[in-house]
Amino acid sequence: MGEVTSRAVGKLALDPALVARARELARRVGRPVVELARGHTTVSVERAVLRLAGVSGADPDGIPWVNRLVDAVVADVGLGHGVSVPVFDALAREQITDVTLLAQKAAAGSVRFSVPVGRAATAARRAARRAAAVGVRQIDRRRAERERLIKRYGDPPRRPWIYLIVATGDIYEDIPQAQAAARAGADVIAVIRSTGQSLLDYVPEGATREGFAGTYATQENFRLMRAALDESSRELGRYVRLTNYASGLCMPEMAVLAGLERLDMMLNDSMYGILFRDINPVRTFVDQRFSRQVHARAGIIINTGEDNYLTTADAVDEAHTVTVSQLLNEYFAHEAGLADWQLGLGHAFEIDPDVPESLRLELAHALLARELFPEAPLKWMPPTKHMTGDVFRGNLLDGFFNLVGTMTGQGILLVGMMTEAVVTPWLSDRDIALQNVRYVLGAAGGLREDFVPAPGGFIQRRANRVLGEAVDLLERISEQSLLSAIAEGTFGIMRRPADRGKGLDGVARHEADYYNPATEILEQPS
Amino acid sequence: MSECTERSEGGMPSQHGMTGKRIVRPYGDTTGDGMVQVSFTLPVPHDKRAEGAAVQLANKMGIDPALLVHAKPMGEGFTFFVVYGRVNHLVDLSAVRVVERDYPLLSAREVNALVKRQLRRKLSVVGACIGTDAHTVGIDAILNVKGVAGEKGLEYYRELKITNLGAQVSVPELVEAARVERADAVLVSQVVTQRDAHLHNTREMSAAFREAMPVGRRPLLVVGGPRFDESQAAELGVDRIFGRGTTPGEVASYLVHALVTNKKARVA
């Protein structure tokens, strides 16, 4: 992904002082949000810790035991102490070793929880930490396993990696489709989640065969798909990556399950849930920080969701909001321990093709992201908004999208479908789309080397202007706060006050004795 | 609601144009040549036999002669075909029947402009899943900015003020929220249909609004869900029912039609 050299200006002649200023402002804007996240917990963070500590399964109604256990603890002592100490204290008092068994007893109402003090508290902390460490070690083992498999089978032979979606709703249909897609050239398979899963405050259990426009993300579905793609990796002689979503109300738990089942990439945006799903901002930022700490540990590449801004707002007028969001996502990611190679910062080819010079504008925006984040494997998203059902024009637009992707050195290319907005992709749609990608990468894969925008020309001017607007917006946000900017509708057009939105009742400020063994392990310098 | 109209305008007159009837065929490059192009996939590996199968399918579709111009293996056991050929079907334009929406479909921009110009305030919409129904997928698809099938939800419309109460909202809560938000319209989604729960809940809801608010102050009542019969609105005491596959744009256009541009037509 390009080496860091002393190149002061690069292909776009960006002002290094302005770039530094942008990052400084992102830090200033992001810092108070991190402080807020450090002082709060959520039901999903606590459930994620319990999953690391080995609680699994669900009750006969399909409600996971982690939910039953956290609910029981919260009913007795509240959320602000964290659930780990009350849970492991109860475990010692009940003289049982299996936390899932404790959850079952708690659900039946036969266990009471309290917040121990003194030696009982110390013992409970130690036991909680031991249990959480088992889960973290499992994540470590899965990461080492990935590294071994990549060494054995190899990475894709070129960038960008080709990213394809499957979404039948039935995991057993998804598997052959994913394997066929891998055979046809996909380097990354994403299993789209069922509509509305992001608003479920629990993670469904088991293998699932029904979903709305997507397949439920469950630990068992993760396991089944990863095993199938391991088979494909062996067959194809290249490691095929698997992607799912750490977003919505269960972001931290999704991150843990992804780490435990060796998923390779996760969609994980700092503000998407707030803006597009009306999830409470505090809940989102707390959940996001924990989930990113887990992703950092698991060696998972995150994909951020900046493409979504462009589907709601004008892709020319609002181009700078993408840059602002990328800078914030970068700040939050680094703070949570993610390295640059793990930052699949998002952006998209969404300018109205009827706008004059739209391709040059796309090139300017895509190259700006490349130049600002030289070490990040940028996630390049195809046109959706201006795909109309005219599949012939759509295929041409996708070709130009692929061309911009290769000319500007994007890291991960989500394959555009000419039948976007018409049907969920057919076998033939996917084949035609991959043929399009192969043609462009084959015919122009090295064009990046020759693509040097003219000094002072249209592309350079446009990129500099977008960066300038991004800095202006960051200045405005830093004069107030990110939370009030979100409340006032600065991003997209949605106003999202910090005291509103879904999942707020699952947020609590830390008590003085709050303890989270997973955070303690994850924040420990390795 | 769905009135049928007959259309006889549009299309080219047939070469053998008869009075009152217009018969047309597809047009390739010569009037009356009947040429079409289709593409499809058959679940068979690519070989001579597969190509024969594609031609057979095309023949059965009325394409004769069928010109197989492209055949390409896809993965294991599938072949993609492109076929050109002449269809032997005729289209009788006088027999074309289309179901017309009784309100115009508007873009988000048009919706916003009409509300701003004619209502001169934001149009307030309160949405919920009522009863025990926890399936917010329908109401979220219509209301969340995220939307559905590439179309943005009502939150995306600048001139609409959306209050999404979420799942398992009781009817009294819904009525109260509608009062507080001065709702112009109430949107209710019902997915669960066991023992006709969706019908009972809808009747309970419309009765509660009738009781709580005088005619003329009552918000427009709209329900949606995959199992409703769109013609049952009057029977259930609501203004409109939307069925499976409804998009946010249709709902927004209807709201503007019923509350802004065609207010008088509304029977309170």
TrEMBL record, chain A:
SUPFAM superfamilies from the UniProt entry: Cobalamin (vitamin B12)-dependent enzymes
Domain D-Lysine 5,6-aminomutase alpha subunit: 12-520
The name this protein goes by in its record: L-beta-lysine 5,6-aminomutase alpha subunit
UniProtKB/TrEMBL annotation, chain B:
Pfam families to which the protein is assigned, alphabetical: B12-binding, OAM_dimer
PROSITE patterns: B12_BINDING (PS51332)
Region (Disordered): 1-23
Residues annotated as domain B12-binding: 122-266
Name this polypeptide is given: L-beta-lysine 5,6-aminomutase beta subunit
Organism this protein belongs to: Micromonospora qiuiae
